[in-house]
Amino acid sequence: MDRILISACLLGRPVRYDGNGKRLDDPRLDRWQAEGRLVPVCPELLGELSVPRPAAEIAGGSGADVLAGRARVVTATGEDVTAAFIAGAKAALDLARRSGCAHALLIDRSPSCGSVQIYDGTFSGRRLVGAGVTAALLAAHGIGVYADHEIDRLAAAIGSEA
Ligand code: SF4
Asked: At what angle do helices 27-34 and 151-158 cross, to 10 degrees?
């Protein structure tokens, strides 16, 4: 049975920077959880950041650029949190491998978990097409990454649509 790495906040866990969760209400999630398919992860907590924590954005590129050393993750006050984000991404990849997850369902626009869009690093609300640090690392290692709004595609990929 396919196991799925999932952003812990999508299950309602209060791990986001603002201390909230962001539960995705979808009966398929409930079923997959009951089937034992879901492996929750919060890369930023695995990177030893706290809750709550300052919002962060990728400055100067995307998650792949951060992994390649060409961009940084910073808070609005300019604190460099790149190392924590990279550590969290590596820990999430390790968890996915140990748990046998070939797929991941991650909340979009996060500097860690975003896979379709991220914010542009100016803290102005502007977005660009790109992935966060964890999503980029997982995808680079062959894990199928889906944004929360792509759950239909994930369900089709694992043959569990009903
Ligand atoms: S790092 Fe991912 S799982 Fe953790 S709060 Fe941010 S979006 Fe949710």
From this structure: 40
Going from the Cα of 5 to the center of ligand 1, the distance in angstroms, rounded, reads 12
Q: How far is CA 133 from the centre of its chain?
A: 8
What atom of ligand 1 comes closest to residue 43's alpha carbon?
Answer: 1
Q: How far is the CA of 141 from the centre of ligand 1 (A)?
A: 20
Q: In this predicted model, what pLDDT tens digit does every residue of 20-58 receive, in sequence order?
A: 999 999 999 999 999 999 999 999 999 999 999 999 999
User: Which residues, judged by CB distance below 6 Å to any ligand atom, belong to the binding site of ligand 1?
Assistant: 7-9, 15-16, 42-44, 107, 110, 112-113
151 CA distance to ligand 1 centroid (A)?
17
pTM here is 0.98
What are the tens digits of pLDDT across the range 110-128? 999 999 999 999 999 999 9
- Spans of all domains in the chain: 3-158
Helices 82-99 and 133-140: angle between axes, nearest 10 degrees: 40
Q: Which atom of ligand 1 is nearest to 16's Cα?
A: 5
Q: Does a cis peptide bond (omega within 30 degrees of 0) precede residue 52?
A: yes
In angstroms, what is the span from residue 113 Cα to ligand 1's centroid?
Answer: 6
At 162 the pLDDT is: 64
